[in-house]
Amino acid sequence: MKQLKKLSELEISGKRVFVRADLNVSLQNKQILNDFRLQAIVPTINYIIKNGGKVILASHLGRPNLEKTKDLGTTSLSTQILIPWFEKQGYALDFAADLAQAEQKSHHDLSKVLLIENLRFFKEEKEPTDAFAQQLAKLADFYINDAFGVMHRTDTSVTLLAHHFDRNHRGIGFLVEKEIETLTHLKNKPEQPFVLVLGGSKLNDKIPMIERFLQAPEPIRAHTILIGGLVAQAFLHAQGYIVGEATFDEQTITTAKKIIALAAQAQVSIMLPSDLRVISSEGSTTTHVYAVDQIPAQDIVVDIGPKTEAMFTPIIAQAKTIFANGTMGMYEHPAYAKGTRAVLDVIAEAKGYSVIGGGDITSAAERCGIAQDIDFCSTGGGATLAFLGAKNPFEELPGLRALLQ
Questions:
Q1: Which of 170, 236, 361, 396 has its CA 20 to 30 A from that of 275?
Q2: In terms of C-beta density within 10 A (0-12 exposed, 13-18 middle, 19 or more buried), how is residue 96 classed?
């Protein structure tokens, strides 16, 4: 962190500042479901404007099919989603549909934010290309990476672009600065008892982080790991339970068994659901509660059950440090969000220091109206897990490594 230049340390008055942001918001019917990531970039934008710099704002949004994209100006979600949001916040905006327009408009009115078209409309963004990095570098005098959510990616604008600015002309914005401070503290100085709350559907993304907090010295080792969501079904399956229609490949089951063994060796308690809410595979949305050893093989698990809620919540309430990633079930449907809501409510009310990370759990906290009661909501999902699981995140996360090289 000491070697990374902070935005507040740079002389940006009268200069163009390329801000790599993470504006990849969740959408439904071209409506923003959660503007958390957009709000998180505001302090950096405001600081640059206040200090006389010009913001060159760039991000990705979704995963566009380049073969089907004909007219960037009319099919772009940037023009339909991002521009209206920023204008509603009171910003004066310019928009550049291509890099030629961006270079021309980068010299215009300093008070206007220049939003560049979705970077993933350029195939060179996902296929790291130094020539593309050079084109982007021409647009600005400074480079600021404030896109913590993609620090674990190798996109051109996250890695190669930084190399075209010397150390005194590149750095991190306020969002990344806060992410690093908070997650470093969580990694190195969690107050005990330290409880991990894990859910969602992706076990593999969580493995390095789980292993690190199982194998860490006792003062920073996880005290208890509570597991829900599809991840819990994998662990239950590894223990011989038939958990509805869910199936898992042999690697996932082997991984779950390995984690269970590591936890036993480290004397860390892993707690799995004792009951689950399920729906019929025949199409009914009515939930039924079953003990984990009684779930009909054809049914679909949608949430943890009430006994599991009652088992999890006091452990979270008594924790001094809490990190949560992933939801307890299919929270998007109100009828299947009871377990997620119960867990988030107790995290928000807990006296211990609480951190949540990942798009789903952050979105769920926003839906529940309690995000403001969580001590820190990370904008990263995979990046947060990668940072926490890394031995040295400044070497292992490509975006951070690029800023230091």
A1: 361
A2: buried
Sign of the torsion formed by the C-alpha atoms of 323, 328, 333 and 334: negative
Q: What is the DSSP letter of 370?
A: -
Helix, strand, coil % over all residues of the chain, rounded to 5: 45, 15, 40
CA distance 116 to 99: 8
* Cα 61 from Cα 257, distance rounded (Å): 37
pLDDT per residue over 202-258, tens digit each? 898 899 999 999 999 999 999 999 999 999 999 999 999 988 888 888 999 999 999
DSSP letter (8 states) at residue 167: G
Per the CB < 8 A criterion, the answer to whether 231 and 359 are in contact is: no
Query: DSSP for 270-320?
Result: EE--SEEEEE-TTS----EEEETTS--TT-EEEEE-HHHHHHHHHHHHH-S
Question: In this predicted model, what pLDDT tens digit does every residue of 173-189 receive, in sequence order?
Answer: 999 999 999 999 999 99
What pTM did the predictor assign?
Answer: 0.92
Q: Which CATH class is domain 189-388?
A: alpha beta
* Helix axes of 250-266 and 229-238: crossing angle, nearest 10 degrees: 80
Predicted confidence at residue 282, as pLDDT, reads: 73
342/352 Cα distance (integer angstroms): 17
| Tens-digit pLDDT profile for residues 89-132 | 999 999 999 999 999 999 988 889 999 999 988 999 999 999 99
Domains 7-173 and 189-388 share a fold: yes
Architecture of domain 7-173: 3-Layer(aba) Sandwich (3.40)
Pairing of strands 376-378, 54-58: unpaired
